[in-house]
Amino acid sequence: MVVGSTAASVVARGELFGLLSGEASRGVTLISAPAGSGKTVLLTSWIEEAGIRDRVAWVSVEREERDAQHFWVSVVGELRKAGGGVVESLEPAPRFDGDAAIGRLTNGLELLGQPVVLVIDDLHELRSEDALRHLELLLAGRPPLLRVILASRRDPRLGLHRLRLADELTEIRSADLRFNLEEARALLVAAGITLPEDSLALLHERTEGWVAGLRLAALALAGHPDPERFVAEFSGSERTVADYLFAEVLERQPEEARRLLLRTSIVDRVNAALADALTGAVGSRRVLQELEQQNAFVFSLDASRSWFRYHHLFADMLRLELERAEPELIPQLHRTAATWHAEHGYLVEAVRHAQAAGDWDAAARLVAEHSTTLALDGRGTTLEALLAQFPASAPSADPELALVFARRELLGGSLGDGEAYIALAESNASTVADERRSRFEISCAFARLMLARRRGDFTAALEEAQPLLDSESEIASEPGPGSDVRAAALIQLGIVELWSAQYVDAERHLEHGLELARRGRRPYLEVQCLAHLAVAAARRSFGQARERALEALAIADAHGWESDAVTGTALVTLGNIDVWQGRFGDAELWLERGEAAVRPDLEPATGLLLYNARGRLFVARGQLQEAVDSFRAAARLEALLVAPQFLRSPTHRILAQTQMRLEDPAAARATLAALAEETPGSDTAQLALANVAFADGDAQAVVDTLAPVLDGSLPSGPMLLVDAFLLDAAARDLLGETHAAVEDVERALELAEQDRLIWPFVVTPPPDLLERHPRHRTSHGGLLKDILDVVAGSSPPPRATETAPLQEDLSESELRVLRYLPSNLSASEIASELILSVYTVKTHTRHIYAKLGVHRRTEAVERARELGILGSSSRLR
């Protein structure tokens, strides 16, 4: 909200202005008082008087606001305007990470160059517990130049006692807001009303200084034939005030204004065009502006005075009167409001009014057409609320709506319920209108594709994808009302093709989905697309895969989605790459974040990659039992997968290999038996059998078993071939075939060179085989040196991107956190010391690592000391 000018009849509240502006004011001000106490008028008049309109971020909480993300998008947007853009924008997303958003907001507010006032009006309407918790975090970590004013009908649940104890809270209560006798007189005089002293005292007594009551009285007294009698009969009881509003306010308005007030009372806010539609007349802008100028409980919501709302009590009265006077008109008014809001892009309001009108068909159409857009706009909670308003029979009566319910259940993990809704939709498909039939069929295919993908049944998913493939030209059409659905469908299709080893089609559909996501400005879909394109790129080049994954994470970080599930695939991909390249410390960091983001039950393929990567990391570190546990977790996920064996076989092979190293040959053979049954004669099975033969000391059996893999009879990928050549080298070394062993190692190094693969060399051959490899004969001396360094316990040299000097200075907030890093304090303990959230401390720490080009706390301390940012013997005060 942009604060408009103050009406001439507003009484200057000098004492309260002093509380708001003077040195006695604290960092946070709470104005808590009943409706009609003058909270909003006090703030708008103070802002005008103080001349700080450009530095005020005003947020009016929408009625019964339950969407935490919707609320915080408004707050961040207003703070961006008032703070000169130092605050980063907050983009809506299907899943909202409030802790991350508050951390980013607080970091941005640290950069304010001048004081800014955040006003949150009607805070009592905020019904989201998450939003209130995040607001408490903002108040606790409030930067010095941010002033926060909370206006509410009741005390919010924000732990304000902490601010009170710290002497950082100014409180203005209903007793402070009540008009004294002189202020009541000033209000009446400003309205052109003069009362005898006894009548004035009586009116003040009856209203107890209640601002709304006095203003109601002033409106009624204007032109009243017997002011003294009016005052004598005026009562402050709710019923009397309601009677007064009916008889003395509404009835005294001209017919045009009465008609407008009653017929627009069904909406939460109104502008001239909407009012014209509801009244069937023209000229509503003039009427609304005149009502606002009269302080007739009509308030403008923007500087141009185009949008208005009514005081809640006044609106309640108007709706009651409409129900009494014209009850038969109310459904039609809601239908008109639904049509107008739909035409102007206010989808949520359109659905609510269609539901209020009992027009369930129209409501279902709107939800079916725009549910994907609402979810991607971060209005998932609102969508849930809209679905809850439909009668239980609605999905049975409307197959398109049933598909919306199905997608909701699938996204939430209720696969059985999702499947039931899909079946319900398909059973009623004949009732779908011809002009919507094609879209319905695509939506059905999309839903079944989602179901199959969530179950890991990629074979079935490809079958379900056929209608999407048949309708590809329609899916790929220009952006329009269904562009979000098209982009999401292409991405789902591409993901299924990726996990089904149909790489060419997968990349084509993912690239197309990425194009549509970018064209439609859907960064959430961009992240999902890029993450899976990274998986596809890893087949060709780890460098390309890393670029794709880091691009996905950069977009996610820019929008506050660092911990969102959408980042999981990118994080796991980066962790997997770093395991293969011997960067085990970096890998652990990526995989820890990936584990926090991934839900293996809903993303079994990504979960399988995660557990396999973790297992490989454990093997490299000699933690063999932990590795077996991780590989078994991967194997359990396989029960959810009905997929090509390229996903499943490596788990059994590496599990068996690890069991052999644990000297548990019985378990290894049982694992191999399962592998042989699933993939008899495959390259993976042959390599696994060769590992068992090597553990049994039968070197010749190793050579014989690996022969069809190494001579190309069984086509294999480079990673498996590296393992195979190394195992063959070890076997031939035992057989005394030194030249053949050297050739095998050289072939393995050649295959590993492009992606700098190190992990196979760490876990497969005896270390002395690599140490004896002739340096003068190898073409891969640099890689061999890196491998031997890792085997000896060192890290490989940093990538080129990691050697760049410090390009960006640390912020003051980051420096504060940096000074605690040499200590033994945990992140939560540092947060407590600095009075910050744990998330904020972790965010600052990640930024410190990135700016210093390091990955660990000890490295950050060492690097900071080298740069002179941190003293060599830095101590906390």
Structure, briefly:
With about 900 residues, the protein is mainly alpha-helical.
Mean of the pLDDT scores?
A: 85
**Strand percentage, roughly?**
under 5%
Form type: elongated
Taking the sheet with the most strands, its summary is: 5 strands, parallel
How would you characterize the overall build of this protein?
- With 877 residues, this protein is mainly α.
- Among the domains are: 14-177, Rossmann fold (3-Layer(aba) Sandwich), CATH 3.40.50.300; 182-250, no CATH class; 583-800, Alpha Horseshoe (Serine Threonine Protein Phosphatase 5, Tetratricopeptide repeat); 802-867, Arc Repressor Mutant, subunit A (Orthogonal Bundle).
- 64% of the residues lie in helices and 4% in strands.
- It has 48 helices and eight strands.
- The strands form two sheets. The chain has a five-stranded parallel sheet with strand order 2-3-4-1-5. Strands 6-8-7 form a three-stranded antiparallel sheet.
- Strand 7 (298-300) and strand 8 (307-310) form a beta hairpin.
- The longest helix is centred in the middle third of the chain and has 22 residues, at 434-455.
- It is elongated.
